[in-house]
Design a protein that fits this description.
Elements (H helix, E strand, L loop, with lengths): L1 H14 L3 H23 L8 H24 L3 H15 L8 H15 L7 H12 L5 H12 L1
Length: 151
């Protein structure tokens, strides 16, 4: 499903002469091919799953956010803006992220479900969240919220 969206998006970007989108989509497709080749070595001849593709996209976004911070520290604002544009393009292929209130509600439900009473139960809560909200929640932010609610 996502694979066809990438190729269709690339075609659309080329027609629209959107160089930033073309470059970003080519990077995504190249990274996907690299991961598919690595998966073949492990016996998976169909390539990686959509869930693994979503994880790949999240890691690409994380890398770009780190780059933005460094570019801003180095006063290279034009490069930081380019990274932001690439993040926006990548995010169009990901499911809608939960809002802050939705994340907090999901955490509270997970805490009640596992019977978490303190910070030592954080792993159980995070496991429930990751199983239900993979690709829909920023787990670094969720982790901080879980700590706050349990601590």
């Amino acid at each position: 499903m996502l694979r066809t969206r990438f190729t269709e998006g690339l075609k659309d970007a080329m027609r629209a002469k959107n160089e930033r989108a073309v470059g970003t989509l080519r990077l995504i497709i190249a990274a996907l091919k690299d991961r598919d080749i690595a998966a073949r070595g492990k016996g998976n001849h169909d390539g990686i799953s959509d869930e693994e593709i979503a994880q790949m996209l999240h890691s690409m976004i994380k890398t770009r956010r780190e780059s933005i911070t460094l570019y801003e520290q180095g006063n290279r604002l034009e490069l930081a803006d380019q990274e932001r544009e690439e993040i926006a393009i990548i995010e169009t292929f990901l499911p809608k992220q939960l809002g802050e209130s939705e994340v907090t509600d999901a955490i509270k439900v997970a805490i009640v479900e596992v019977g978490a009473t303190g910070i030592k139960d954080m792993g159980k809560v995070m496991a429930v969240l990751k199983s239900r909200y993979a690709g829909k929640m920023d787990f670094s932010k969720a982790s901080a919220a879980v700590k706050q609610l349990l601590g």
